[in-house]
Design brief:
Blueprint (H helix, E strand, L loop, with lengths): L3 H4 L18 H4 L19 H13 L1 H9 L14 E4 L3 E4 L4 E2 L1 H12 L4 E6 L5 E5 H17 L7 E5 L4 H13 L2 E4 L6 H11 L3 E5 L2 E3 L2 E3 L1 H6 L10 E5 L14 E3 H6 L10 E2 L3 E6 L9 E5 H16 L6 E4 L7 H12 L3 E5 L9 H9 L4 E4 L1 H9 L15 E4 L6 H10 L6 E4 L11 E2 L14 E2 L5 E4 L12 E5 L9 E2 L3 H8 L7 E9 L5 E6 L3 E4 L2 E4 H8 L5 E11 L3 E10 L8 H11 L9 E3 L13 H9 L15 H9 L2
Helix pairs in contact: 3-4, 5-6, 5-7, 5-12, 6-7, 11-12, 14-15
Length: 669
């Protein structure tokens, strides 16, 4: 939301080569407020925009008290209410709710199993059409028994359990089983290579690894246990391996007594573990950011702090109710899934979907079919998923009954206005509420968002800051920029989901995130706040291209390309130029029904939308893009291919690593 600190800020001076003031980009200037289509549900603390604005201002006057009010809706074992609610600050370190003790699994599983034991907690859908479901009572039983099994294997509070699983019912029980006894879990993306897997397990010194025998991806069996076996001899900390039977392939190698099947372990553990009362700031889990040349960072999040913020995030960004059927399409290895399903949605007692495999295999009809068959009401997904649907045209969604769908929420990268309008018209028949949010693995929540049913959206923007989240957009010297100016997005006060450390590297934690702008968190993202208080994240600071002293955001150029008929996806990078310093280079994929689209036409679209200085060196028309499993286009790999002729850095997180060879051929690398 817009505050006085922005209204009175003078236009800042800018150091050479730094972010510079610019006219309001067309994507921001031309976007209009779109009123919510959902009526206020009554479940939120606000029901109108002015109530939101008042609550936001009050929340920043005492952020500790605000978050204590949120946490007071949860269940605590002792020490509640805490006094003070927050201690410390971003400069010196912070904590919330000192002295309070509780348990995440109790709040996410037990308290719902007591009240609605027969309510379905999770529907699981395999890529091959297999289906299974657990009620909250069944999830509670599996969670407690797996927690006891971990204790029997020698796992204690503070030990690390590595979770190398795809989306399965058992994933929920394994995560909450760890949280029940205070084991620190580290979910490792099931698409990672053996080397990337080993790096993370060696760094955390995990005592137990939980994996699956196999999983399906685009019709192929992915051998997870075999991948783990490739590096087990290097993993000296690992004492036990627990294997979930997904395929029940008898050829999967098991080494007794180290390896145990999950179902056999549960059958041999008739009693469940009691929950351990843990401190509010005790570590709950570690999640790694993928590295390029630098070592991946193990971000440490607190257990109960993360619960508090994820519960709040799901309330405001989704407004989940008891009658909702909700689907987060992300892979459990990316933080979106813990925030918006494993922890946040279970804390709200939702009925959830968890799906295996690719959303567009054997075709895009799979996604529509799931929405229709389960009468899904709310979805959390990535903008790339929606662009994929748009690429296949408007005929397909009208073949399915999508009338139950009321809300699409998004994170990962900005949703361009063209796709926003296509989705609203063709999937939602003009009534769908679309909520584009923004967050990072470090923030542990999507802290800018629409307040569902309350605040207006703007196609392309990331919404407004949610209560309890203080931020400032600044220039290179740390001075607030004026409304409409591009600057560095910083966070100025703590909140419970903000990460607490880098595993085994506290110096890197302080140096990388809390040094450049003093007592602020440095997001390394470039952003604009418009006159309506909406935040526009225009790219990573490094992705703001300096073309002959003109500063251009990659998001702005990509949005312009996506207005071209026939363009399904767009990515823009900056490449070195002897005269201009940098020039854009663009990549697009086309829709299934696109006619001839020439490079000259695409280049001219950028010139018409932005100016002659935005003319790209090349526009490449590709058959596909390199994407992560969470749907983000990996632009650094495109840069590697056109600059160096080969993809460098970490490629293990790609949704389909085989696309690199195809892209090398198409780009002539």
């Amino acid at each position: 939301m817009r505050e006085d600190r922005h209204a009175s800020a003078p236009t800042p001076g800018v150091a050479p080569g730094d972010l510079a003031p610019s006219d309001l980009p067309p994507m921001v200037r031309d976007s209009r407020l779109v009123a919510p289509t959902l009526a206020p549900s009554g479940r939120l603390a606000v029901a109108a925009p002015d109530e939101y604005r008042a609550l936001y201002q009050r929340s920043l006057e005492d952020v500790g008290a605000y978050w204590a009010g949120v946490a007071g809706e949860l269940e605590w074992a002792s020490g509640w209410p805490p006094s003070p609610a927050m201690t410390g600050d971003l400069a010196s370190g912070f904590s919330f709710f000192d002295g309070a003790r509780g348990n995440v699994s109790v709040n996410c599983v037990d308290r719902h199993a007591r009240v609605t034991p027969n309510k379905v907690a999770v529907h699981w859908i395999g890529e091959d059409g297999a289906e299974r479901s657990w009620t909250y009572a069944e999830l509670a039983d599996q969670t407690a028994r797996f927690a006891q099994a971990l204790l029997d294997l020698g796992v204690r509070t503070g030990d690390v359990v590595a979770i190398y699983l795809p989306n399965l019912l058992e994933t929920f029980a394994v995560v909450h089983g760890c949280l029940r006894i205070g084991a620190i879990y580290n979910i490792i993306f099931s698409g990672f290579s053996a080397s990337a897997l080993a790096d993370r397990i060696i760094d955390t010194e995990a005592k137990v690894v939980v994996t699956a025998d196999e999983t399906l991806r685009r019709g192929r069996a992915i051998a997870l246990k075999a991948t783990l076996d490739q590096v087990l001899d290097r993993l000296t900390s690992v004492e036990h391996v627990v294997v979930v039977r997904r395929s029940a392939n008898p050829a999967v190698a098991m080494s007794t007594p180290r390896d145990r099947y999950y179902d056999e372990l549960i059958d041999a553990t008739p009693r469940g573990a009691d929950p351990v009362a843990l401190g509010a700031n005790d570590p709950g889990f570690i999640i790694y950011t993928s590295g390029t040349s630098a070592k991946p960072k193990g971000l440490v999040h607190s257990g109960l702090g993360f619960l508090t913020g994820a519960y709040h995030n799901v309330q405001y960004a989704l407004d989940l109710g008891p009658d909702d059927v909700y689907w987060c399409t992300a892979d459990c290895g990316w933080l979106t899934f813990p925030i918006f399903e494993l922890i946040g949605a279970t804390a709200c007692g939702a009925t959830m979907l968890a799906t295996e495999g690719a959303l567009d295999f054997p075709g895009p009809q799979r996604l529509y079919s799931i929405l229709a068959n389960y009468r899904v009401t709310k979805v959390f997904t990535a903008p790339t998923v929606l662009r994929m649907l748009a690429r296949h045209g408007a005929t397909l969604p009208h073949q399915f009954d999508l009338s139950a769908l009321a809300l699409l929420a998004l994170v990962g990268e900005p949703l361009d206005a063209t796709t926003w309008s296509w989705v609203r018209e063709n999937i939602g028949d003009g009534r769908l509420e679309i909520n584009n949010t923004y967050g990072q693995s470090e923030t542990g929540s999507a802290w800018t968002s629409s307040v569902v049913g309350v605040t207006s959206a703007k196609p392309g923007s990331c919404g407004v800051a949610l209560p309890g989240h203080a931020y400032e957009i600044v220039d290179h010297a740390g001075a607030a920029v004026a409304t409409g100016e591009t600057g560095y997005l910083t966070i100025t006060q703590p909140f419970p989901t903000l990460f607490r450390d880098i595993w085994h590297d506290p110096q890197r934690y302080r140096t990388q995130y809390f040094t450049r702008f003093g007592p602020r968190y440095d997001s390394a993202d470039a952003a604009i706040e418009d006159a309506d208080g909406h935040v526009w994240v225009v790219g990573r600071v490094d992705d703001v291209i300096n073309v002959a002293a003109h500063r251009l955001s990659t998001m702005e150029m990509e949005s312009a390309l996506l207005t071209m008929p026939g363009v399904a996806e767009a990515a823009v990078i900056g490449v070195a130029d002897e005269v201009k310093g940098q020039v854009p280079e663009a990549f697009v994929t086309l829709t299934a029904t696109a006619g001839d689209v020439s490079e000259d036409e695409l280049s001219q679209r950028l010139v018409d939308a932005i100016g002659t200085f935005a003319r790209p060196r090349r526009v490449h028309v590709l058959s596909t893009m390199p994407r992560t499993r969470s749907g983000k286009i990996v632009r650094r790999l495109l840069r590697d291919l056109v600059v160096d002729g080969v993809a460098r850095g970490d490629t293990s997180g790609l949704e389909d690593p085989e696309v690199l060879a195809q892209l090398e051929r198409e780009l002539g690398a």
